[in-house]
Amino acid sequence: MTATVRDYSLTGVESTRAVERGLANGQWFQADIEPDRLRELSVRQNLRPGIDLVLWLALIVASGAFAWSQRGSWWAVPGFFVYGTLVGGSTDARWHEHGHGTAFRSQWLNDLVYYPASFMLAREATYWRWSHFRHHTDTIIVGRDAEIIFPRPPSVAKLAWLFTHLEGGSGLIRTTVKHALGQSDDNIDVLVPESERGRVFLEARIYVAIWVATIVWAIATRSLYPLLLIGGPTFYGAWLVLFFGVTQHAGLREDELDHRRSTRTVLVNPVFRFLYLNMNYHVEHHMFPAVPYYNLPELHGEIREQLAEPKPGMISAYKEIFYAFREQAKDPSWELPRHIPDVPGWRGPIVQGFEWAGDSSVDGWTDLGPADLASGAMRPVDVGDAKLLLACTDTGDVVLVDRICTHGDADLATGTILGCEIECPKHNGRFDLRTGEGTRRPIQTALMTYTVRTRNGRLETHIAASGSAANGEER
Ligand code: FES
Questions:
Q1: With a 6 A CB cut-off, is 440 part of the ligand 1 pocket?
Q2: Cα 164 from Cα 140, distance rounded (Å)
Q3: Is 425 close to ligand 1, i.e. is its CB under 6 Å away?
Q4: 352-467, CATH topology level
Q5: How many C-beta atoms lie closer than 10 Å to residue 34's C-beta?
Q6: pLDDT tens digit sequence for 81-114
Q7: How much distance in Å is there from the Cα of 228 to the middle of ligand 1?
Q8: Could you read off the pLDDT of 114-165 as tens digits, one per residue?
Q9: What residues does each domain of the chain span?
Q10: Ligand 1 near 324 CB (within 6 A)
């Protein structure tokens, strides 16, 4: 049979088809979990990720120092191998988790790790952030997701070639140089809002400047060692990115709105879990991206009965991938048999409906229920057609805002309150609850905020909105 090759670009026929079929920004299955428990699991801290970060940095510094001190000796080979694997391989999980903003409670600490990690992987920080938002919106949807690594028909030979990262790494460098020269491309045009494109070009120039400085250093010292230290690990350490990353989606279904069919969870040992920051719980991560990596094992325990059986180890995962690749090479439409428990899925937050008093209220104020919200608590309310969210910030301010995220159609009632902000459960975008302003990408448009007051132990809202501000284009 002649294999049909689909168009995996973001601007081709499959992109249009995905929209027509309702696969773009679709409604995904979510396992059922108590909202309070999910909120508990979404709580961030600084201590645990801080310890992990310090340990990881110490390993990099120690292996790098050892490798450098052994220049000219064969001991430099294992030294650089370990160093390169940590820098060019294990950085991927750090890049990913801190890019989501879910590792540290303090956002600046997430950014502090995200930007250097992006450089270490030769991934332009802003472009890849937006690409990853899309990956979460349209996971493995052909024509929508720019992070599909195995277009069908796949092949084991291609998988082996990918592990060298020669093609992938040089592609990243070529693209970065192009952007440094101010040239855009389809992916930027589709994924990155206009207001952010300047950052892409600036970051590309910074990357190229560091690479050029390293090459000059290598030429001046007539030595390849500087390149093994900076830039080189992107290539020779990337095998670890592939080793873990391939298991996430390879061989599983495309064009599917259920992560249990398109994504794989693999149970691995504690060393791998440290290197990979628990991203082996990949189905769980995709279903609930607001849960930080250190809580994913617990989340797995909560919902595992509702998921497909996880693979018991990397060998088992690769056996399944090889099997799928062999079959899909013959027939690209072939799918792995996968037992998915028949469960109803996410019930959503319990919405407490209140009669919209509207014009019938004497003074224009509508009752929203008892004023019993504790700090960090939320209460979704439907007032007529309006889906609203009452929330109490950590400082005790009770606010009323629109409940549907302005970036996508996610329900903020399943999000997380962090101080005076709320984080969207879908792409970890954030809003300031007091003003509605977006405070974290990908939010480009503010939330509507409404007047709310307390009277006689009840919360009430006025009909008129108290404010809204559009601050950019929506993606
Ligand atoms: S839907 Fe994307 S941040 Fe809310």
A1: no
A2: 23
A3: no
A4: Rieske Iron-sulfur Protein (2.102.10)
A5: 10
A6: 999 999 999 999 999 999 999 999 999 999 999 9
A7: 39
A8: 999 999 999 999 999 999 999 999 999 999 999 999 999 999 999 999 999 9
A9: 13-330, 352-467
A10: no
